[in-house]
Amino acid sequence: MYLLCNNPTTQVHDELIFDVPREELDLLQPLVKETMEQVMTLNVPLVVDAAVGENWGEL
Predict the structure, then answer these.
(1) Confidence band (pLDDT; 50, 70, 90) for 6?
(2) What is the per-residue DSSP string for the chain?
(3) 0.85 cut: is pTM over it?
(4) What does the angle CA 57 – CA 2 – CA 35 come to, to the nearest 5 degrees?
(5) Within 10 Å of residue 4's Cβ, how many Cβ atoms?
């Protein structure tokens, strides 16, 4: 079990922005992607893209 030090900081339309310590990035990114893609069963795939940047302009 991991205790992660982050929460979504912003939601813009269909995007979530997290402020994540660098040491948690490799663990959190696939966790969020997998969780969001499997949140419910749909007739079409729910595809989640993830990007990393120092600010929103770099995404």
Answers:
(1) low
(2) -------EEEEETTEEEE---HHHHHHHHHHHHHHHHTSS--SS---------SSGGG-
(3) no
(4) 55
(5) 12
Report the alpha-carbon distance of residue 57 to residue 18 in Å, rounded. 14
Contact call for residues 18 and 32 (beta carbons, < 8 A): yes
How far, rounded to the nearest angstrom, does the alpha carbon of residue 39 sit from its chain's CA centroid? Answer: 13
**Residue 1 predicted with pLDDT over 50:** no
Tokens 């929460």 map to which residue? 7
39: left (phi over 0), alpha (psi -120 to 50) or beta: alpha
Give the per-residue pLDDT at 30: 93
CA 19 to CA 34: how far, in whole Å? Answer: 18
